[in-house]
Specification:
Elements (H helix, E strand, L loop, with lengths): L2 E7 L5 H17 L3 E7 L3 H7 L6 E4 L10 H9 L8 H8 L1 H10 L7 E5 L13 E4 L10 E3 L6 H7 L5 E6 L4 E8 L2 E10 L6 H5 L4 E4 L6 H18 L4 E9 L7 E8 L9 H8 L4 H10 L6
Parallel strand pairs: 1-2, 1-3
Antiparallel strand pairs: 4-7, 5-6, 5-7, 8-9, 8-11, 9-10, 11-12
Helix pairs in contact: 1-10
C-alpha cells in the first residue's frame, strides 16, 4: 500500500485533537516513504468521498470522537471498499457507546465500576449513586463532559443545565487511586503507563495541554497488577472485536496497599497520536518509532471486517 489518504479534523468535539493527530501522522507516513493525501474532514461528506476518488490504496483514519470513531466513517469506507486503519464498524460502535461496551466487558468477566445509565434530568432529583461518583456522556471521548461529584458539592443543577450530550448519561462509582493505560497493537499489549494529571482528574486539558500530565513508563506498580493490566487490555481489545491499535484505560485503587484493585474504564479504538499522546510513547518504549508505528497501522488496514 503506497498511496495513503489521511482523514483528520472531523466535526466532533475532538476536532482539534484530530487535527493534531493528523498532522503528526502525515509527516510520519511521508518519512516512511508513503505517497500521502491529506484530507481535512468537515461537515460535507460528499467532499470527503470526492477527495477519495480515485481510491487510495488505504485510508489512515486519524479522526476522533463522534462520526470518526463510532462506526460512521468506517461504514462509509466499507461501502467504498477502501481499506482503513483501526477497528471496523461493529467494534468502533461498541467501544464508543459506553453502555454497550460495559455490557460486553461484564459478559466476559472483565472488572468494571458499579454504575448505570440515567436520564440526565434525574440529577435534579438527587444523587443516583453514593458520592463520590462520576457523570459521563455515553458517546464522547477525551474526557469531554466528564464530571466528578464529591461530598459537599452542590453542582447537580448546574451539570443538568449545561449538559449538551444527549438525554442520557452514564453514572459510575468514583474509583480512587491512579490512572493507568495500556496500548495494544494487534493482540500484543505494549506496556503500562501511570498517568499523573496536573488537574483533579485526567481531563481534556491534562491529556492534550503541554505539561498537563506526567507519564511514568513503565508504571511502578506491583508486578502482579502490571501483568493483570496487560492481560485485561488484550482481553478487552478481543472482546470488542478491535483490530489494529487500541488503548485500554483503567483506574487502579492502591489506597489500601498493593496489589490494588484494577477497574477497566473504556477502550479507545482511535488512540490519540498527538505530541503528548500515550500510544506513541508506549510504542517508543518498546522500540517502535512513530513512522514505524504509523506504517504498521497502514499495513494492517482492512475493510468489511
Amino acid at each position: 500500500m503506497r498511496r495513503v489518504a489521511v482523514l483528520y479534523g472531523g466535526i466532533s468535539a475532538e476536532r482539534e485533537v484530530s487535527l493534531s493527530s493528523g498532522r503528526q501522522v502525515i509527516s510520519a507516513l511521508q518519512d516512511a516513504g508513503y505517497d500521502v493525501l491529506p484530507v481535512e474532514v468537515g461537515a460535507d461528506l460528499g467532499a470527503v468521498i470526492a477527495a477519495l476518488t480515485p481510491r487510495p490504496d488505504a485510508v489512515f483514519n486519524a479522526l476522533h470522537g463522534r462520526f470518526g470513531e463510532d462506526g460512521v466513517i468506517q461504514g462509509v469506507l466499507d461501502w467504498l471498499d477502501i481499506p482503513y486503519t483501526h477497528s471496523g464498524v461493529r467494534a468502533s460502535a461498541l467501544a464508543m457507546d459506553k453502555a454497550a461496551s460495559r455490557a460486553v466487558f461484564a459478559s466476559v468477566g472483565l472488572p468494571i465500576a458499579a454504575g448505570r445509565v440515567i436520564d440526565i434530568g434525574e440529577l435534579e432529583d438527587g444523587d443516583p449513586l453514593p458520592r463520590p461518583y462520576v457523570v459521563k456522556p455515553l458517546n464522547e471521548g477525551s474526557s469531554v463532559g466528564v464530571e466528578i461529584l464529591r461530598e459537599g458539592e452542590n453542582r447537580r443543577h448546574e451539570i443538568v443545565c449545561e449538559w449538551r450530550f444527549g438525554p442520557q448519561a452514564l453514572v459510575e462509582e468514583f474509583i480512587p487511586g491512579r490512572e493507568l493505560t495500556v496500548g495494544v497493537l494487534g493482540s500484543r499489549a505494549l506496556t503500562v503507563t501511570d498517568i499523573a494529571a496536573s488537574h483533579a482528574f485526567y481531563d481534556y486539558d491534562s491529556k492534550y495541554a503541554e505539561g498537563g500530565s506526567r507519564h511514568v513508563v513503565p508504571a511502578l506498580i506491583h508486578p502482579d497488577s502490571f501483568t493483570q493490566a496487560m492481560d485485561l487490555a488484550a482481553a478487552a481489545h478481543a472482546a470488542l472485536g478491535c483490530r489494529g491499535a487500541s488503548r485500554a484505560d483503567f483506574r487502579y485503587d492502591d489506597t489500601e496497599g498493593e496489589p490494588g484493585r484494577l477497574v477497566l474504564l473504556e477502550v479507545n479504538t482511535q488512540p490519540g497520536l498527538t505530541p503528548t499522546s500515550l500510544l506513541p510513547e508506549q510504542a517508543a518504549f518498546c522500540g517502535i518509532t512513530f513512522p514505524a508505528l504509523c506504517a504498521w497501522m497502514v499495513e494492517e488496514a482492512r475493510c468489511r471486517g
